[in-house]
Fold this protein.
Amino acid sequence: TTTPTVMAILLRTLCQGIKVGVEIILMATDGGCIAAGEKVIAITGTGRGSDTAVVAIAATSTKLHELHITSERIYIIGFCSGAASACIFASQNSVGALVLDGCFADVRDMVADQAVLMGIPRFLVNFLTPGLLLMTEIIYDYELVNAQDVIADVACPIFFIYEENDELISLEEMQLLFDLATHPANQFWEVGDAEHSQSYKTHPAEYIERVDGFLSALD
């Protein structure tokens, strides 16, 4: 199983990258031990939860399979849009586990909430969003997929992380995703005194302990 020391080194290294836009982390373990043949890949936020990000996960997963790492030994940690991309990928492919940190349930709601934080009236966002989505579909061949619509198809265990002071995602949204998910080993952690996808920065020791405990219990 993973050890707290290995997990601490792993997460400290990876979470430093979040500051520069890393949204998805794939941890691949061989023989049930991250320390043996450790393989870690960080994927940037390219695509912001779109098809591009899902394709990037798929390509990386395929490469890991070529290295004779089985699907159940691949764990994905997703932050914000990366969490949604990880959810979409896992609904269509087999992986060992997901950690979804600050995952939004609905793309439209996420866009509207971000726009409101930028000072744009919500009614204006709601008016413009259908047209913008149509344009992205035509120009970029973007197909809208919401995490809430596919999470029931995710077969692996999921660890949900919600930050109490999240200004983009409500507790109700994360609770909805948790309720829609079907695996009996799923867990939910509400982190106090933390902002959107920032719980590692505010609670590093507890973050490591909880993620490590969740993944270790799967072995």
Q: What stands out?
A: The first strand starts at residue 22 and ends at 28. DSSP finds nine helices and six strands in the chain.
